[in-house]
Amino acid sequence: MTAHDHDRLLIIDFGSQVTQLIARRLRELNVYCEIHPYQAVTDAFLAAFAPKAVIFSGGPASVIDETSPRPPKGVWDLGVPILGICYGQQVMMAELGGRVERGQGTAEFGRAYVEPQGAGTALLEGWFEDGREQVWMSHGDHVAAIAPGFEVLGTSPNAPFAITADVARGFFAVQFHPEVHHTPNGARLYENFVRLAGFSGDWTMGAYREEAIEKIRAQVGNAKVICALSGGVDSSVAAVLIHEAIGAQLTCVFVDHGLLRQGEAEEVVTMFRDHYNMPLIHAAEEERFLTALEGVTDPEVKRKTIGALFIDVFQHHASELGGAEFLAQGTLYPDVIESVSFSGGPSVTIKSHHNVGGLPEKMGLKLVEPLRELFKDEVRALGRELGLPPHFIARHPFPGPGLAIRCPGEITRDKLDILRRADAVYIDQIRRHGLYDEIWQAFAALLPVRTVGVMGDGRTYDYACALRAVTSVDGMTADYYPFSHAFLGETATRIINEVPGINRVTYDITSKPPGTIEWE
Ligand code: XMP
Q1: pLDDT of 33-46, one tens digit each?
Q2: What pLDDT was estimated at residue 340?
Q3: Of 354, 331, 359, 347, whose CA–CA distance to 405 is shortest?
Q4: Closest C-alpha to 468, from 513, 423, 414, 503
Q5: How far is the CA of 232 from the centre of ligand 1 (A)?
Q6: 3-state secondary structure of 443
Q7: For residue 355, which atom of ligand 1 is closest to its CA?
Q8: CA–CA separation, 68 vs 235, rounded Å?
Q9: Measured from the CB, is residue 376 less than 6 Å from ligand 1?
Q10: How many CA atoms, within 13 angstroms, populate the side-chain half-sphere of residue 91?
Q11: Is the minimum distance from the CB of 441 to ligand 1 under 6 angstroms?
Q12: Using CA atoms, how far apart are residues 287 and 282, in angstroms rounded to an integer?
């Protein structure tokens, strides 16, 4: 059985920054779904994909513009339920004979309250139990007249057509975003939608493990595979999964790019070589990476430089090994989607992700990416399923480009050493206070400025560092972690006392958006 044999839901992406959250909500319901940019979804694509239901995402365009993105005509004749979100609602109305108007003075961003209207439908089960529902609006244009066959099922002061449906045809459309946390009961709408579409909820980690192993064996045959092991949760789970599938055909290559945290290289090598008994090459390439990064200050150039070198190193070890045909990577679904958008999809690229963005066009190795369909928390669930140690699975995410993107400006060995020590003290503090598991990600960044301080009787002129800690469900959005002042004070004191080269500590209180989690 493969993903193809599950009931499949298709999300047509019109470029919303939160399209992935729709997929998250569905995966939580054990529903297999894929996101595809609208340009890729043709009638032929629909026939091949054979979705059991379709969702139209939101998006930044205006349906009033003639060139605005549309779904293929065939979607209306599939005979499956369709749910339109925000722009997805407007496009549904415009295509089916309703009217959308430009939002002059009626644009709406933020919290709103929707009240029920009409008879209700299966989509709204469990909604309006307390009279009204809080929702998150984010739209410029609005629907001015609904399409024939539709009725209004919910209204808000600024969105008289907040919830609309043609129940007979199974077409539903909402003006707000049920996928974001600011629509507290939004998950229920998705649950109702997949239930009325007849999904059985058969997408579980146990099933995934078996299927992934079969798929890896079928793809690889008797060939040798090298796995890019970074020590992060993603590549570790990928390695253990592939090892389970093909045993000694797998060799792991751990590229030590000199941008790792304190003690990290030893920990990874010990765990996989000694504990898992995997053939592991420890490629100590600090010199090469740091030389290539000399003088580089632009974040995208850093990412691309590191990504390209990474692949070089793999190719080198693959040829040394003799005859490896495949390269395994712990690429996740969010990496894939972001990069698709970059190369043609409608949403704006914020950062090019290391795993995908750095791949040269013509790679001598074929890719095995058994986590391509999974989100981060699904990878953790798979790791538990595979018996990886809980403390290892609970580790905070660490980006492929490593400390390079936590050291804005030019990278030097000295700066990296200072950063590593500060980071180690900070994480030690977090663990001592029992806060590690409450935090999605915590790290220190070394700022490219030096500031004046006074220690003892002397003047200091040293670097400032910023501490970052965020809570998040999936890394897509994040809030800063509200440490106590006592904790922050104690941590700052420890860092300044224990880390030569730092004389000032700041705490980053930016959420995402508008910030990103990493500094670059
Ligand atoms: P941002 O900084 O975009 O980060 O808010 C979101 C999450 O992604 C991680 N991240 C990366 N992971 N390769 C990775 O494997 C990368 O190039 C990369 N850049 C960011 C980041 O640590 C956070 O968890």
Answers
A1: 988 999 999 999 99
A2: 42
A3: 354
A4: 423
A5: 12
A6: strand
A7: 13
A8: 39
A9: no
A10: 30
A11: yes
A12: 14
Residue 456 burial class via C-beta count within 10 angstroms: exposed 0-12, middle 13-18, buried 19 and up: exposed
* Contact predicate 109/141, CB 8 Å: no
Measured CA to CA, the distance from residue 352 to residue 342 in angstroms comes to 8
Q: Which one-letter amino acid corresponds to residue 94?
A: A
Residues 462 and 449: their CA atoms lie apart, in Å, by: 8
**213 in Cβ contact with 170 (< 8 Å):** no
Q: Note the pLDDT of residue 359.
A: 46
Contact 17, 161 (CB under 8 A): no
User: Is the separation of the CB atoms in 214 and 203 below 8 Å?
Assistant: no
Nearest-5° Cα angle at 516, 513 to 520: 150
Between CA 254 and CA 222 the distance in angstroms is 23
Whether 177 is a known active-site residue: answer yes
Active site (annotated) includes residue 361: no
Which tokens sit at 433? 């206070």
Output the CA 404–ligand 1 centroid distance in Å.
12
Residue 401 CB–ligand 1 contact under 6 Å: yes
Judge if pTM exceeds 0.85.
no
466 phi, psi to nearest 5 deg: -115, 135
Backbone phi, psi, residue 332, to 5°:
-105, 165
Cα–Cα distance for residue pair 255/258, rounded to 1 Å:
9
Query: Is 86 an annotated catalytic residue?
Result: yes
Ligand 1 centroid – CA 296 distance (Å): 19
**CA-closest candidate to residue 239, choices 396, 386, 389, 397:** 386
Residue with tokens 């809030």: 479
Take residue 143 and report the two structure tokens written for it: 């629907």
DSSP designation for 353 = -
Q: Rounded to 5 degrees, what are φ and ψ at 472?
A: -165, 160
Cα-Cα-Cα-Cα dihedral of 250, 251, 257, 263, to 10°?
100
Q: Which of 139, 142, 177, 243 is catalytic?
A: 177
Cα 518 to averaged position of ligand 1 atoms, centre (Å): 7
Hey, whose CA ends up nearest to atom 11 of ligand 1?
A: 399
Q: How far apart are CA 15 and CA 22, in angstroms?
A: 13
Distance, in Å, from the CA atom of 87 to the CA atom of 68, rounded to the nearest integer, reads 10
| C-beta 24 within 6 A of ligand 1 | no
Q: Residue 343 has what pLDDT?
A: 33
Q: Tell me how far the alpha carbon of residue 399 lies from the centroid of ligand 1, in angstroms.
A: 5
| CA of 440, closest atom in ligand 1 | 24
Q: Is the CB of 349 under 6 A from ligand 1?
A: no
Question: In 3D, which of 232, 291, 235, 237 has the Cα closest to residue 261?
Answer: 232
Which parts of the chain have pLDDT scores under 70?
A: 1-4, 104-107, 337-363
Please state, in angstroms and rounded to a whole number, the distance separating the CA atoms of residues 464 and 509. Answer: 16
